[in-house]
TrEMBL record:
Stretches assigned to the N-acetyltransferase domain: 122-253
Protein name: GNAT family N-acetyltransferase
PANTHER family for the chain: AMINOALKYLPHOSPHONATE N-ACETYLTRANSFERASE-RELATED-RELATED (PTHR43877)
Signal peptide positions on this chain: none
Claim: Acyltransferase is one of the keywords in the record: yes
Native source species: Actinoplanes aureus
Keyword Transferase set for record: yes
Keywords, alphabetical: Acyltransferase, Transferase
GO MF annotations in UniProt: acyltransferase activity, transferring groups other than amino-acyl groups
Protein origin, superkingdom: Bacteria
Amino acid sequence: MDSAVTQIAERHWHALGDDRVVGRGEVSRRPDGRRFLSIDAWHDTVFDQLAGAMLANLPRPLYTVVDEDDLDLLSRWERTGFGPRRREWEYVVPTDPRITGLDSVLPPPGVTTLAAGEAEEGPLRELDRVIRDEVEATFGWQNMPAEVPARPDGALVLDPARYAVAVQSGAYVGLVRVVPLPRQPRIGLIAVRADRRRRGIARALLAQVLGSAHRRGIATASADVNQSNEAAINLFEGVGARRTSSNLELVLR
């Protein structure tokens, strides 16, 4: 199918055929500055035309995310020059402590946990900064799950209602970020300060979050984990999490 591609807004493109929209393209900018593309088109030729028009007008590198089982879409992006950058596993995590084995898990001595909504924004923001710096110096923050939104001034929005926190000696030392979706909350990040790891803090935080969901009648949560993050994989699989699918992040440099 032959079509005419038009950029209708700063971030949107339409492909028109026979006076109707036969494909759409969009670019979104993540808080870390990276640009992610998405294209919705039934026909390969329309996809290629949209991709060509978008790539001609956007600075590189560019990124996109594809369900690894969607071989057709993966092939389309690879045809335009995109290649794999990282893989992220998707897990379904039970909340019932009889299944997770977290019913008897307590925080380490001297550590307490604050449920979502109980943390103070100032100390939470400081912990977030420390963890980001530590991850950036080792694993690389771009390899972590999708970031939280940013305000117009560029500062990240840290909503205490979405974080459970571990506290030791008055300082915040670990956190879990949870998107409170009604049917299945999503665990977007679990992290502990480097000098407080391997003490059971992450496991205690997970017990707090999953236990709270279970008490509200929610049977499962979801989680996204980078395939190279062995500590997170072991943590989730250790509580009975089941791997359901994987997403590939692709890049065009």
